[in-house]
User: What shape does this take?
Amino acid sequence: MFKEQKVLLSGIQPTGIMTIGNYIGAVKNWLKLQDDYLSVYFIADLHALTVRQNPTEFKQRALSFFAQYLAFGLDPEKSILYFQSHVPEHTQLQWALNCFTYVGEAQRMTQFKDKSAKHTDNINMGLMDYPVLMAADILLFQTDLVPVGIDQKQHLELTRDIAIRFNNQFGDVFTVPDGYIPKTGAKIMSLADPTAKMSKSDPDPNAAISVIEEPDSIMRKFKRAVTDSGNEVKFSEDKPGISNLLSIYTEMTGKTISEAEEEFVGHGYGDFKSKVAEAVIERLRPVREEYAKLIKDKAYLTEVAKQGAEKARYIASRTVGKVYKKLGLVAKE
Ligand code: TYM
Assistant: This one.
């Protein structure tokens, strides 16, 4: 499909809190790349319905996440920012793609298996169909690049498989996207258990840091962070806690791991943890301040989301039109 610019797309589910893992694994690269691509960033609210949400809290959280996108500096003048549920083409394409995805493929997804094990009382169709919705999100915009953390790699591979399968039958309909998974910081670990991913819905409040968290709370959580035996600040496999803190520190400061190791030679873990907390607090300070202003201005947020959805629909409807035509559905005049 003809495009003037390369397209980049990504999204976050509005569940729990937006964490420093989401920032380091995804948003940081969005900010880096947004000038070089036609960038599409959405709030993946339909994805979040796969687990039960309290409707009142859910609505507030989705708007809060949207304000956090803007607070980071995602620019609605340059990029397309919107709520997934405002663009019905996502589910229109999903249905078509469902018919090109095998049940076995969906059942093999690690996240489906994990979430099914966690929510045994609610293994709904949406949970299994989630990666197909994600494929629709991506393929709708003829996306070239998808910046995500490592946990989304398998979903991206499925997206590519679906796109190739469709193209093989119908010609060059979809751009086959590439993932952009950072070499460092693609999997930030929990502060309470450095062998588990930092998750935005972790029930343990000490496990994750929100990108709009108050400085004293950030400091407290880092001071409590689980570390390893020994006292050397060194990146190594047998030191998952310290290695995770070093990753966070370097991602927040732009220093390399060896520069950071050098800096903390002879310092104890306690001192190191405080320095990591300070680096996080400083990086997030402008985000928190900007967020505090934005979240009060509902009219502005609503207007940005409305304009974003209009732009998104303009592109997305062309893809759906093309796909439906290829499939032989009778055109609506
Ligand atoms: P979600 O909402 O779980 O996470 C949002 C982004 O943050 C990354 N991420 C992490 N990176 C590093 N360390 C961590 N601990 C960490 N936790 C999360 C994720 O990899 C992701 O990039 N299915 C997606 C949302 C989505 C999407 C899309 C993304 C829906 N449609 C289309 C890209 C393209 C998800 O649940 O991400």
About this structure: Residues 215-292 form a domain with the Tyrosyl-Transfer RNA Synthetase fold (CATH 1.10.240.10).
